[in-house]
Design brief:
The complex is a heterodimer.
Chain A: E1 5-7, E2 10-13, E3 19-24, E4 31-37, E5 44-50, E6 53-57, E7 65-68, E8 75-79, E9 88-95, E10 104-105, E11 109-113
Parallel strand pairs in A: 2-11
Antiparallel strand pairs in A: 1-3, 3-8, 4-5, 4-9, 5-6, 7-8, 9-10, 9-11
Chain B: E1 3-5, E2 10-14, E3 19-21, E4 24-26, E5 31-38, E6 44-50, E7 56-58, E8 64-68, E9 73-78, E10 87-95, E11 103-105, E12 109-114
Parallel strand pairs in B: 2-12
Antiparallel strand pairs in B: 1-4, 3-9, 5-6, 5-10, 7-8, 8-9, 10-11, 10-12
Classes of the chains: A mainly beta, B mainly beta.
Chain lengths: 114, 115
Amino acid sequence: DTGVSQDPRHKITKRGQNVTFRCDPISEHNRLYWYRQTLGQGPEFLTYFQNEAQLEKSRLLSDRFSAERPKGSFSTLEIQRTEQGDSAMYLCASRADRSNSPLHFGNGTRLTVT
Amino acid sequence: AQSVTQLDSQVPVFEEAPVELRCNYSSSVSVYLFWYVQYPNQGLQLLLKYLSGSTLVKGINGFEAEFNKSQTSFHLRKPSVHISDTAEYFCAVSDSSGGYQKVTFGTGTKLQVIP
């Protein structure tokens, strides 16, 4: 169990640029989640994958956001035309298929939009 | 819909003193409950979880929590805190009815242990 890995740890970008983040879940976990966390807030749900299928998307996920999990393993989260309000920590988590399994989080990608 | 309320945004406490971090939840179905801890610039780590059975749950680092269904609470306690417990703590709820089981987090409580 090598844990959930996220890359990069930090990303600074200028407003209007596109960014892409990667998440490698724990290998035997088929459920993968993306959350966003801003200062002083708890993690807010963005989207959920079971294997390669994206089964749920939050209303927080505007049209500029897209997530994929092409082979049911790693996942990417892309933000197009970034805005200053996108500045946040983006957290990836995975969990096993058992109904009571907890989420295992990566260390997150901190995005700063200038 | 489910929600979590953490009543205290910050809790200062002296080292070796006891602490209680409060959490109340709302859900129309049966739930699983979790406490996570987050150290600066890191992801969240699971402290403990309530799935079923005994309402008193013990976790790592000497923490425990008690599930109270009538009060819809899941307060976190530690009898004697250490400097290393300084962190942010998040309560979370997940419905137990199957499906994709969205996990909803509270806004967090920052625990500051004072030497």
